[in-house]
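Appendix B. One record, verbatim.
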Amino acid sequence: ALNEGLLAVADDLRARLALYDEAEPDQLRHVDSLRGMIIACEAVLTLAARHAEAAEVEAARTGDPQRRDELLELARICRKVPAHAAETLHEAIQSLWLVHLGIYLECESVAFSLGRMDQYLLPFYEADVEAGRLTRGQALELIECLWIKLYENVHGGIGHVQTVTVAGIRPDGEDGVNAMTWILQEATRELENVGPSLASRIHSRTPDEYLRYILDTMRMGRYMPQVYNDDQMVPALVSKGVPLQDARDYGLIGCHEPTICGKGYFRSASWPGYVCLQDWLELALGNGCKLDTGECRGPQTGTPDELGSFRDLWAAWQAQMAEGVRHAVIRANRGEVVKWEQTPRPMMSALTRGCAEKALDFTEGGALYNMSGFQAFGLGTCVDSLAAIRTLVYEEGELSLPQLVEILRNNWAGHEDLRLRVKRSMPHWGNDDDTVDALAVECVRALEAEIDRYRNIRGGPFILGLWSFWQHVGHGKGVAASADGRTFGDLEPLVGIPPGEWMWGGEGMGREALRRRIR
């Protein structure tokens, strides 16, 4: 859009459309997809023309000569971009905003992010500076104006996460911190807006000056620069089949999910993909049924008295997990069918590599990379529960597994001393205990191996993520009591401290007093 213009994009789409014959049944889908992309490009051009007209009307009304000149310049730019290639930073930013606006108006959804903005805006900035038509201060003001529009959001709120990615390794392997990186960071620090979110990519060769700037900004506590480690992210993407150069060009969408900018549809937060590891342990203990309600949701994998060893219990968990993953895959793929049938994305498709070439919409698998996400949560509860069961039942023999299951069915009633001992004294994941941490690794590897067996309906792999968004809150209210000492529906972060007292300061007891009480 910035370097060629939407007229050129639409012309390319028309040339591709001419290769198809809608009289052929197997080509109808491709004809419709290409026509949709063309219509979307034309719609954004109409939107730009209307902005130009509005600016001209305002210019005629104002009595301020300076403001009139600004409005007329805006009108000129909106008549030029995004129809044609941008030549200046101002034109590039205006083109970017109008296209982003078009994408947002295309559908009611979230997390349309803006990619590696410092990389693709840098040539326009450098050309302006070299020609003497723009100062750094003017560039900063233009970015801050864009930031305000993004904060405003198309729909008038800040709930639609819009992430800008900066810095990191370039496709050629060199460090990507540049003059625009600093301008985008400074604009974000000056305005202190919640949005857009700024995702800072770092790696082992990131300049110290830039790292210090990010850390100083975090210390200010005013906005949240996210940080992503290229030394981990790039190899992870390569391991999933993304070529090295493209993996180096990843950007963050939404909260923190990676995608390959302009080339990938990484549906990382599909609702059916949220899975809870503790659910599968509960079903393993209940022979496929929930412990609290008795509702059967999984295969029969053995009654508690049949699970004579920890490996038996582990095998039961794996079987319940495999069945849970299978059902989640079915839900996710059926959801994808609904998306391509009812909510195609022609504007996004027109700007995503692969869609025009395949003559397929973004939602149909047109992008070069088509991944879907599994979001697993409840890992800590599951691992701590497994560790407690291993200790109490299979190592120390303090309880039999049927006895422990009965305690959990009754929500620890009459066993408060045991519950608190498990909660406070047993080993827990994430506390530098290798025996428990190894369980977490084993759970994640088993889950990933199971997920790797499937493909999504767009032809790409499912990718495991360990995050919950907010699903752990509502979901946690329906999970039976667990062997880590958690009671049914318990969401309080600190056991034994009333809800009004666990805040760090504020109206609570205060940080130091709370720390003493926890000890």
